């Protein structure tokens, strides 16, 4: 949200800013899509779908491309060792 605001983007990825400075280096964080819309250059990865659902339901959830979400089904129960040695290995 912070970076989107700094570059003058609304929750749907449309530029509503008023300064050329906001457009400068936009390609560092965003790719320009059709219709003057910008999408984040991000890949979101987790072991469980719940966190991804929370991102999608948030105010900027529609900004992300659906094919950039990767998640498992089991999760690690917030246990680093389980995620590292069993579920995530």
TrEMBL record:
Q: Which GO CC terms are listed, alphabetically? A: microtubule
Provide the GO MF annotations for this entry: GTP binding; GTPase activity; structural constituent of cytoskeleton
Q: Which UniProt keywords apply?
A: Cytoplasm, Cytoskeleton, GTP-binding, Microtubule, Nucleotide-binding
**Keyword Amino-acid biosynthesis applies:** no
Q: Which SUPFAM superfamilies match?
A: Tubulin nucleotide-binding domain-like
Where the record annotates domain Tubulin/FtsZ GTPase, the positions are 6-88
**Where in the cell?**
Cytoplasm, Cytoskeleton
Q: Name one Pfam family in it.
A: Tubulin
Q: Which InterPro entries match?
A: Beta_tubulin, Tubulin, Tubulin/FtsZ_GTPase_sf, Tubulin_FtsZ_GTPase
One GO biological process this protein is involved in is: microtubule-based process
The superkingdom of the source organism is Eukaryota
Question: Subunit structure of this entry?
Answer: Dimer of alpha and beta chains. A typical microtubule is a hollow water-filled tube with an outer diameter of 25 nm and an inner diameter of 15 nM. Alpha-beta heterodimers associate head-to-tail to form protofilaments running lengthwise along the microtubule wall with the beta-tubulin subunit facing the microtubule plus end conferring a structural polarity. Microtubules usually have 13 protofilaments but different protofilament numbers can be found in some organisms and specialized cells.
What does the sequence similarity comment in the record state about its family?
Belongs to the tubulin family.
Q: Which PANTHER family match?
A: OS01G0282866 PROTEIN (PTHR36527:SF3)
User: What is the name listed in the Swiss-Prot or TrEMBL entry for this protein?
Assistant: Beta-tubulin
Species whose genome carries this gene: Aspergillus flavus var. flavus
Q: Which gene encodes it?
A: BT
């Amino acid at each position: 949200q912070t970076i989107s605001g700094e570059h003058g983007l609304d929750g749907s990825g449309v530029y509503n800013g008023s300064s050329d400075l906001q457009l400068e280096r936009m390609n560092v964080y965003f790719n320009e899509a059709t219709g003057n819309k910008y999408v984040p250059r991000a890949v979101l990865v987790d072991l469980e779908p719940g966190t991804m659902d929370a991102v999608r339901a948030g105010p900027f959830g529609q900004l992300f491309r659906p094919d950039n979400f990767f998640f498992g089904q089991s999760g690690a129960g917030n246990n680093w060792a389980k995620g590292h040695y069993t579920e995530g290995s």
